[in-house]
Design a protein that fits this description.
The structure is a single chain. The protein has about 100 residues and is mostly helical. It has four helices and no strands. The protein has one domain (about 20-95). It is elongated, with a radius of gyration of 21 Å. InterPro entries: DUF6809 (IPR049215).
């Protein structure tokens, strides 16, 4: 079996594509927003609806960038935690701050 790092390097693990909401609260809010969007767009003219859709598409393009940064920040935090765990010294902040 390949190591996790090898799988990550080979593109077999895609963290950004593995997001699956499992919280009921998330699902409820998603449904509420979807319903509100439907009600809202029904009030718009065709031109306004097209403009709104274009705006929402542009907004959606930011989401992968945001998720990428959150993943990177979380990975760095995990690496700093591991650095502290495996460090022999009491104060590891200086050793790990360059990560």
């Amino acid at each position: 079996m390949k190591s996790i790092l090898q799988q990550l390097y080979d593109g077999e693990i895609l963290p950004g594509e593995q997001f699956k909401p499992y919280l009921e609260e998330y699902k409820e809010k998603w449904n509420k927003i979807s319903n509100a969007e439907l009600v809202f767009t029904e009030k718009l003219t065709k031109q306004q609806e097209q403009e709104f859709d274009a705006l929402m598409d542009e907004h959606a393009l930011l989401m992968p960038l945001e998720m990428s940064q959150v993943f990177i920040d979380g990975f760095k935090l995990g690496a700093r935690i591991m650095c502290e765990v495996f460090s022999k010294g009491e104060d590891t902040q200086d050793e790990c701050s360059t990560m």
